[in-house]
Amino acid sequence: MAKTKDKSLSAAVSAELKKGFDLKKFKQSKMLNKNVRFKDQKWIPLSKAFQEVTSIPGIPMGHITMLRGHSDTGKSTALLEAAVSAQKAGVLPVFIITEMKWNWEHAIQMGLEVEQTVDEDTGEVLDYGGNFIYVDRETINTIEDVASFILDLIDEQKKGSLPYDLLFLWDSVGSVPCELSVRSNKNNNEWNAGAMSTQFGNQVNQRIVMSRKESSPYTNSLVVVNKVWTAKPESPMGMPKLENKGGKTMWYDATFIITFGNISNAGTSKIKAVKSGKQIEFAKRTNLQIDKNHINGITTRGKIIMTPHGFIMDEDGALKKYKAANQSNWERILGGGDFEIVEEKPENTSPDMFETET
To answer: Are the CB atoms for 262 and 346 separated by under 8 Å?
Structure first.
């Protein structure tokens, strides 16, 4: 009986205290009434073909986006489309190229605005500049290097030395080891995954996400190309699964994940212009799936055609239009006259292309 009275008395005292308590004033006194709002969601648009297939505008600003898949499935095309669109919108692309498959001619062909310094005597291109930042394995050799570089630019931005929204474009996760692996001369996957978790999960990724707050004058975004490998089925009746190199950090932290190609292989069809034994591969048909979307929940799958100039729709009209735009160039290479359009199907057409990771 005494316990019931004590409980009732305590509740009465608590209720009386709340009557005279002003929560709003308390929040103000502790500066807890600010920094609670996020900016309206903005996007870095990708091509109309991408938007049609996915029902998504492009790359969400203020988030981490993963482009994953086997080689030559469309990841770099999406990355370059994002960079070109960012330039047009006044967002500064920051290329972190650790895979070392970069090609300036392809970037320019995709529409990236690049200023070339040319030797007047030889015509050789000496340097590439413009409204972007570029680093590669000449200075970035470890996971820690990548993280340090990103954090340094964000710090410079905060100090006012870099007055741009930043779009970090890392190609690719899994292509550089951690410092411990380098020092020991052993590429230890557990050490690498641990470094990714520490450097990105606990530091870089948080700084990217926090730029979405209204208190941040700039909005920063991170797009990573993730190398993958195919895990064997856990049972004889099971399906293979796509696993990300470099650990699970980016999978867990990414708000937006796009998977290109097949699970067990690229699964792309090669589309070529052919004449008299000569051929030009001018496009590839690839599978595309939105695997994770924590922004508006839309997840879609379909096929799209990637070209050296960007994505086009997987339909006859789009292919004919692209052929017409490039026919004169192809005829010069093939020797003039009519040529045939041939599609080389992938060897493996098993239905594992949309196995979603859980």
So the answer is: yes
Say what the pLDDT of residue 127 is. Answer: 94
**Domain extent listing, the chain:** 39-262+286-291
- What is the overall mean pLDDT for the chain? 89
Residues 227 and 245: beta-carbon distance below 8 Å: yes
Residues shown for the chain? 358
CATH number, span 39-262+286-291 = 3.40.50.300
Q: Is 334 exposed, middle or buried (0-12, 13-18, 19+ CB in 10 A)?
A: buried
Cα separation, 183 vs 116, whole angstroms: 37
Is the distance from CB of 257 to CB of 223 less than 8 angstroms?
no
Residue the block writes with tokens 């160039």: 329
Q: Kindly give the residue spans of alpha helices, DSSP state H, lying in 20-94.
A: 23-29, 48-54, 75-89
What are 344's strand-pairing partners?
Answer: 270
The CA-atom distances, in angstroms, between 140 and each of 81, 113, 135, 346 are 24, 24, 7, 36
Structure tokens at 59: 């790359």
Residue 356 confidence class, pLDDT cut points 50, 70, 90: very low
